Amino acid sequence: MNNKSVTPLAAMIMAALWPGISSAESYFNPGFLSAEDAAVADLSRFEKGSHQAPGEYRVDIWRNDEFIATQDIRFIASDAKSGKATSSGLVPCLDTEWLKRLGLNMLAYPQLAKFKAGECVPMATLIPDSETHFDFAKLRLDISLPQASLLNSARGYIPPNQWDEGIPAALLNYGFTGNHGSSDDNYYLSLQSGLNYGPWRLRNSGAWSYSRGDDYRTSHWNNISTYAQRTIIPLKSELVMGDSNTGSDVFDSLGFRGARLYSADNMYPDSLQGYAPTVRGIARTNAKITIRQNGFVIYQSYVSPGAFVISDLNPTSSSGDLDVTLEEKDGTQQKYTVPYSTVPLLQREGRVKFDVVAGDFRSGSDQQTTPFFTQATLVAGLRDGYTVYGGTQLAEDYTALAMGAGKNLGEWGAISMDVTHARSRLADDSEHQGQSLRFLYAKSLSDYGTNFQLLGYRYSTRGFYTLDEVAYKNIEGYEYADEADGGGKNEPVVQSYHNLRYSKRGRFQVNVSQSLGDYGSLYLSGSQQTYWETNQNNTWYQTGYASGWRGISYSLSMSWSKSVGISGNDRIMAFNLSVPFSTLLGHGYSRTSTLDRAYATFAASNNSDGDATMQAGIGGTLLEGRNLNYSVTQGHSDTNGYSGSANANWQATYGTLGLGYNYDRDQHDFNWQASGGVIGHADGVTFSQPLGDTNVLIKAPGASGVSVENQTGVRTDWRGYAVMPYATVYRYNRIALDTNTMDNHTDIENNVSSVVPTDGAVVRAEFKARIGVRAIITVTRAGRAVPFGSVVREETSGVTSMVGDEGQIYLSGLPLKGKLLVQWGDGKGSQCLAPYTLSPESLSQAVVVASATCS
């Protein structure tokens, strides 16, 4: 039979009629594939199903369905002494170092000791019941290892040898807020700068404030902190030298200037991670919110009317009470304290945490001295769910000793209880001693949808004081807002009040949420601090209900607060409603429709003075990347009559920008916010959105304007660099470039990378971009098409491909001028060289069609 007369359809019919033919080893008949008088290259490597050519491939590596890394792995043919065959015909070449990285217990397999570094280990032979599967289409390598063959480590554990300390870099983070009103101007600039070299991190944080009015003008720079930090991997700890804060496991958090060595929870698996603060509140108008910790302003921004939640707060310490000030447009203020403490101090069996500090006490208050103190704490996990802990604080006028224990109660939750004994000398030289008993409880009633995130109580005797209280210069006094908050005005604003004669008595704090299923959820948060010698107390509570229906969301909330030494109290009730336009229009939501991404809002509130406020407006997102948020509102209040606002916030490649306008009967003002980051590195300077503590520098030279997946507004700059902020430390971070945003002359070999950064690092995720022309080039030799299946490589760029039917070759990333090496067998007689030249206009075309002659 003439092969050229057999069509592919006929071949399929023959395979169906004589299945025995197909059960034998596959054979590629060149006659089915070649055109008239065309030759075919050696196709023997395809004769075993979908087998691929051996070589190095970048793959996602999974061990027992757990992601390990994305990395280049060398693959060899399965007929080598390498293990069982896979669907791709390839098995990975894994040496002993890779087996250690996978967590294999090497001592259980002594025969592995004879293999040298880089030598392939036949896993299927030496490790019984182990398997590998390489999905070439997905570039995914699955490795199955018996659980008994692995080291006993927690799920999600990543060996320290995979941690990346990052590249040398200089960092700068900036945030600027400004307000221009009818009678005054206010500006606030925060700067966080740093240097990274190896494991060392040097950081500085400062803020500049400026206020100007009819009869005053103030300007002030405040250095918040400067410190150096590095990881101590063998101890799984962090060393900090400079300005920082103590931990809060045993004692309340304190600011200090000195040195601290402490166990780092982030170096352990996720199951050992802790707790983060959430600030809730209710604003009646477009208000300015200022949050302090240990006397320093750590957060300042503007919030819209209604209930708000700030969950992305980055405190200067791991804990410590947060003092919240909310300044409304009419000048009134709300002040309350959000307790920030950890949940019960339970540790796994055998886990030991330590924390040692030595330095000068440091706060942002000029009402306090800076005594030298030392602090040491230890927390140890015991058998049967018990944890014991204790510590001491020592200073010239203060001595404290604490001891406590915690217990996992199983279905009943977890509790901890401790007692602290302290001796104190106050500012009037009076000496005191007393005890403080603390009880903490946490429980999640999953079956009922109830979560006691934190429920605690502390009782102190009359003579008990903390080191923070002993540091006060005076027994009684007011602390006024600094110039950052308009302290230059005629009447200074009271920030806080203390009276050491009113020693602390009892403190209760609660954070409870209750899910109601389809009917929404309830929550209650609050705290109350009582004192000896007075019936006044510091109290703050907020409760609320939230739910939704067919895309509509609504909430009802109420807050109440009162402070010792400050007259009056604040009580606010608020109702908020948000309705998507897609619901109003009666059709389904469309992500691509600007109208469907808009929503209507309504907010109403009433405070303790009987002042009612109502506002209605619209908001939504714009632009292709949905990185421009906007809102327009119109309202009315009993005190200021009609009011309105317009705000927009843009998350751009090189930072974020916010603009706003507010007006009422008596005044109008403009406010703006700008923030961003800058990283200087060996390859230049890269601008970005606001940096996090740990960042990823994306390097794809030449690939400009490419978006980063799951990062709003983040694109590579004109050189091909970008920054992905807020990486997760000691965990795998997947960085992927969106290939749909590449232009016609850009291709990236592998658009996914994985990194494991250490705390504070700037790690580099590098991508190899091919910048050039996408072309289909028809290559002929002696008047005939070069053989089908020939391997092709462009000599200058290294771009590779394969010859298709009739000599057609598709290549991407080609230079405008070059030479194609075509090879269809072994030896010099089975190859030729095809020079080609493309016009400059090719760079602007999607795909160029050209021809070349091979000789």
How would you characterize the overall build of this protein?
The chain folds into 5 domains: 3-33, no CATH class; 55-152, Ubiquitin-like (UB roll) (Roll); 169-674, no CATH class; 692-765, Outer membrane usher protein FimD, plug domain (Immunoglobulin-like), CATH 2.60.40; 772-853, Sandwich (Immunoglobulin-like). The chain has 7 helices and 53 strands. It has a 24-stranded antiparallel barrel. Strands 3-2-1-5-4 form a 5-stranded mixed β-sheet, with no helix packed on it. The chain has a 4-stranded antiparallel β-sheet with strand order 14-13-16-17, with no helix packed on it. The radius of gyration is 34 Å and the shape is globular. The model is unreliable at 1-26, 271-276, 315-319 and 483-488 (pLDDT under 50).
Task: Provide a brief overview of the structure.
With 855 residues, the protein is mainly β.
Question: Topology of this protein?
Answer:
Blueprint (H helix, E strand, L loop, with lengths): L7 H10 L1 H5 L6 H4 L21 E9 L2 E12 L12 E3 L3 H6 L21 H4 L4 E5 L4 E5 L24 E12 L4 E13 L2 E13 L4 E16 L4 E9 L9 E9 L15 E5 L3 E7 L2 E8 L2 E5 L11 E6 L5 E6 L13 E10 L10 E10 L4 E10 L2 E11 L5 E12 L5 E15 L4 E11 L6 H4 L5 E5 L13 E6 L4 E12 L5 E11 L5 E13 L2 E11 L7 E11 H5 L12 E10 L4 E11 L5 E10 L3 E12 L2 E9 L4 E14 L2 E5 L6 E5 L21 E4 L8 E4 L9 E3 L3 E4 L6 E5 L2 E3 L1 E9 L2 E2 L5 E4 L5 E3 L5 E7 L2 E7 L7 E7 L10 E6 L2
Parallel strand pairs: 1-5, 39-44, 46-53
Antiparallel strand pairs: 1-2, 2-3, 4-5, 6-7, 6-37, 7-8, 8-9, 9-10, 10-11, 11-18, 12-15, 13-14, 13-16, 16-17, 18-19, 19-20, 20-21, 21-22, 22-23, 23-24, 24-27, 25-26, 27-28, 28-29, 29-30, 30-31, 31-32, 32-33, 33-34, 34-35, 35-36, 36-37, 37-38, 39-40, 41-43, 42-45, 46-47, 46-50, 48-49, 48-51, ...
